[in-house]
Amino acid sequence: MSSGSGSAAFARRDGALCCEDVSLVEIAQRFGTPTYVYSRRAIERAYEAYANAITGRPALICYAMKANSNLAILNLLARQGSGFDIVSGGELARVLAAGGDPHRTVFSGVGKSEAEIEQALRADILCFNLESVPELQMIERVAARLGRRARVSVRVNPDVDPSTHPYISTGLKGNKFGVAYADTLPLYRRAAQMAHIEVVGIDCHIGSQITAIAPYVDAADRVLDLVDALGREGIHLLHIDFGGGLGIRYRDETPPDPATLIAAVLARVDARGHGRKTVMFEPGRSIVGNAGALLTRVNIVKHGEQKNFAIVDAAMNDLLRPALYGAWMDVQPVAQRTATPITVDVVGPVCESGDWLARERELAVEAGDLLAVLGAGAYGMAMASNYNSRPRAAEVLVDGSSMHCVRQRETVEELFAREAVLP
Ligand SMILES: *Cc1c(COP(=O)(O)O)cnc(C)c1O
Fold first, then answer.
1. Range 402-412 average pLDDT
2. Distance 25 CA to ligand 1 centre (A)
3. How far apart (Å, rounded) are the C-alpha atoms in residues 223 and 234?
4. What is the mean pLDDT of residues 72-99?
5. Rounded average pLDDT over 268-279
6. What are the chain's domains?
7. Pocket-testing residue among 47, 60, 61, 66, ligand 1, by greatest number of atoms within 8 A of Cβ
8. CA Rg, the chain, in Å?
9. What's the whole-number mean pLDDT along residues 159-184?
10. Which letter does DSSP use for residue 397 in this model?
């Protein structure tokens, strides 16, 4: 299995599924269900897989924190020297609260507001990844008002097909992301003229859950063409950011490991004479995806007319990926049973037919059993909602043989604490 997947984080011991040295049965007893469980070791190993691939050269790994923004996880990564890729002012506040370094933080996203730009300028972040002319103008305006210079990089849309799910491919012409390839040079020329803008880099991000190297190499070459063209005009960049998007194994995918991906990209950078520029990567899913599982309990086993359902206490509001993308996620019984498996759909209690976590799995399940949805560390809790007035799950971080609650389960009262009725 590819390194960086953190797959060793969850393994059976005497039949019981464990996270590192802690049994998931124990976690359920202590913290209840549904609960997200993360492995410190898996997160750190996944980060190291990136960090080790760039040692000895100017480089920065910026964890794309939208994948999982729990403060404890951000803090672990900050302690390892990771930078951060943020997409909102809220995420910047989390970086600061978690002890992350704003000077290692880049701000991505198509719709930054003036308030967010101001917040980021005051925090003196490393750079804004620009996505349009109006955004450039907005940043210039805010920077002028604050008497600062904003460092910017242009997010180029390299128009390569990453062959992934349409909702998570971002580098094609029809996407809302990035600046069209042909518009890039004019945008740089404009930026270079502005008094409160300092052009420092270029970046791209072509999609998510990418399992091949070729699209990255193609995108890298397209980006390097622009770096060369800019250099000929006297616009010299300090860094090149190749984005994130490396896939993980959910089922039978065989993504390259970070070292292989980075080596392929760096080979292009070096071959084209840009080896002294800082290279950056923005991994999200591949840092935390396989380091997390959603622990849930079977409430009811319902034998329907055509199908059997294991109705569990986690639902689409806790883990949206199956409902949103039709994603396949591995569901494992926490304790292995000897009973004959039946074919079941694992579904939640939410009033939507789209509320399912897994379909047509062979599982020996009974009411009261614990199940673990693996590969749930990325875009799991981060996308959770309160639909159906369901409090969001607890989050537990396992470190060897100890477990730490890193987010308490929400209470129902908290859900409507900010609401009011008419007088
Ligand atoms: C989401 C995102 C990432 C991370 O993508 P993953 O697939 O989780 O690695 C990186 N950069 C940008 C700009 C993003 O929007």
1. 98
2. 33
3. 17
4. 98
5. 97
6. 10-39+289-415 (2.40.37.10), 108-283 (3.20.20.10)
7. 66
8. 23
9. 75
10. E
Quote the pLDDT of residue 5. Answer: 40
Residues 6+ positions from 407 with CB-CB distance below 8 Å: 70, 72, 381, 394, 395
Report percent pLDDT > 90 for the chain: 91
CA 254, 260, 266, 272 torsion: positive or negative? Answer: negative
Write out pLDDT tens, residues 323-339.
Answer: 999 999 999 999 988 88
179 and 130 Cβ atoms separated by less than 8 Å: yes
Residue with token string 């308030």: 115
Q: Which amino acid makes up residue 376?
A: A
**Predicted local distance difference test score (pLDDT) of residue 176:** 72
pLDDT at 2: 38
Residues with CB under 6 A from ligand 1: 64, 66-67, 85, 108, 205, 208, 243-246, 282-286, 378
Three-state secondary-structure class, residue 174:
coil
- Write out the E strands in 141-270: 150-157, 179-180, 197-203, 239-241
Are 370 and 336 within 8 A, CB to CB?
Answer: no
pLDDT at 192: 97
> Among 232, 257, 237, which residue's Cα sits nearest to residue 247?
257
* Cα 294 from Cα 121, distance rounded (Å): 37
Catalytic amino acids?
351
- Report pTM: 0.95
Cβ atoms 158, 181 nearer than 8 A? yes
Assign 3-state DSSP to the chain and report helix, strand, coil percentages, each to 5. Answer: 35, 25, 40
**Which residues lie below 8 Å from residue 3, measured CB to CB, with a gap of 6+?**
45, 49, 257, 258, 259
Does the pLDDT of residue 167 top 60, yes or no?
Answer: no
| Residues 6 or more apart whose Cβ sits within 8 Å of residue 291 | 6, 9, 38, 39, 42, 43, 46, 377
How far apart are the C-alpha atoms of 416 and 273, rounded to whole Å?
Answer: 58
Ligand 1 centroid–CA 414 distance in Å is 31
